[in-house]
Design brief:
By secondary structure, this protein is of the alpha+beta class. The chain contains seven helices and five strands; from the N terminus they run H-H-E-E-H-H-E-H-H-H-E-E. A hairpin with a 5-residue loop joins strand 4 (about 150-155) and strand 5 (about 160-165). Keywords: Signal.
Length: about 170
């Protein structure tokens, strides 16, 4: 009898396309000598929505931490070269992040940035020219006390907002 019930639970898990162990974890299945097979399916609803909300919040925090790191800046270089700046207008949320505010090993990070910038001077000039033609970007930079030439890179987030990395180090 127990063997039959166990085989039924394993067969059901197989039909559902999951391993019996995963099925048992997800469904909270128990096989006991006295009661046979019991299963409880976790409730959907508020708890599941809270879990999804928590996951989204965690992902947003992770992305913000990444954006505020030297690695985030280095990843933005390629994107900045391809970014269509004509889509950025006065309605676009533009955030300026300074090099001095980045997290991580400042000496190594700044050395990496300097090496990239010196090796890609032509690309930086092209970026400056493109930014100079965008009123929303130039206005935001001026409002924050920066020049176009202070920009190291920029990236556009999935929501359309733009993150501009500026070099605020003394010259």
């Amino acid at each position: 009898m127990i063997k039959t019930k166990l085989m039924t639970a394993i067969s059901l898990a197989t039909l559902l396309g999951t391993s019996p162990v995963t099925f048992a974890q997800d469904v909270d299945a128990d096989v006991t000598r006295d009661a046979g097979v019991t299963a409880e399916v976790p409730a959907k609803g508020a708890g599941a929505e809270a879990d999804a909300s928590t996951a989204a919040d965690t992902q947003a925090k992770d992305m913000a931490a990444w954006d505020n790191s030297y690695e985030g800046v280095s990843q933005s270089f390629e994107e900045a070269a391809k970014l269509d700046l004509s889509a950025i207008d006065s309605d676009t949320e533009i955030t300026i992040t300074t090099i001095s505010s980045l997290e991580g090993d400042a000496a190594a990070g700044q050395d990496m940035l300097d090496a990239y910038l010196s090796g890609h001077a032509d690309e930086q000039k092209g970026l400056y020219e493109r930014i100079s033609k965008n009123d929303a970007l130039t206005s935001k930079l001026e409002d924050e006390g920066y020049k176009v030439e202070d920009v190291i890179s920029l990236k556009q987030n999935e929501d359309g907002s733009v993150l501009v990395y500026v070099d605020d180090r003394p010259e």
